[in-house]
Amino acid sequence: MVVVWDGRVCSCPQGVPPSEKLFIGRNFNGHIGSTTGGYDEVHGGFGFGERNGGGTSLLDFAKAFGLVIANSIFSKRDKHLVTYQNTVAHTQIDYLLLRRRDRGFCKDCKVIPGEILVTWHRLLVMDVGIMVKRRKISARGRPRIREAVREVLGVSTGISGSHKGDWWWNKVVQGKVKAKKEAYRSLVESIGEEERRACIKRYKVARKEAKLAVT
């Protein structure tokens, strides 16, 4: 099945699988008017100007294929509705359409004043928000992730140590903490002023390194 529009053969919107998002945009050379006028399903009620035969044909086309005209959904100033302007006229003849069931994806649709694509035509844009599903991690990748986590964080034995939360310490952190404990023990057991000063110096260095490793 094909659709003939303005004397040209176009692909049928129904040929696009339902799982795919459908967006149609072009110069339809018709005026849909500023009100719905019996086309509530496809006309959002915020058009521009007076409807003509070309606009009615576009509305019938949208209704037949379950589409909605995006730049009629949102209330805008005239400068954000007019898609074609020259020295003698300003009209709305360019439109963006999408499936009615996907209307919720359309966050905004308007003309960018001053941006001209071709002679006298203004840039019509539509903001669309589509959620992309995340890919699931395959079973093959899970063992590698576990190995990386085990290497970095270590493995809990289920027995609480003397430090709250020390179950996740890896070998590097455990070594720094052990060195700090040994330096403190040496400080406590030190005899003589000179030995004590040396132990204090070693303990301060070990304590600083352990703190950096833990945090």
TrEMBL record:
Domain of life: Eukaryota
InterPro entries, A to Z: Endo/exonu/phosph_ase_sf (IPR036691), Swc5/CFDP1/2 (IPR027124)
PANTHER family referenced in this protein's UniProt entry, alphabetically: BUCENTAUR RELATED, CRANIOFACIAL DEVELOPMENT PROTEIN 2-LIKE
Annotated protein name in UniProt: Craniofacial development protein 2-like
Organism placement in taxonomy: Eukaryota, Viridiplantae, Streptophyta, Embryophyta, Tracheophyta
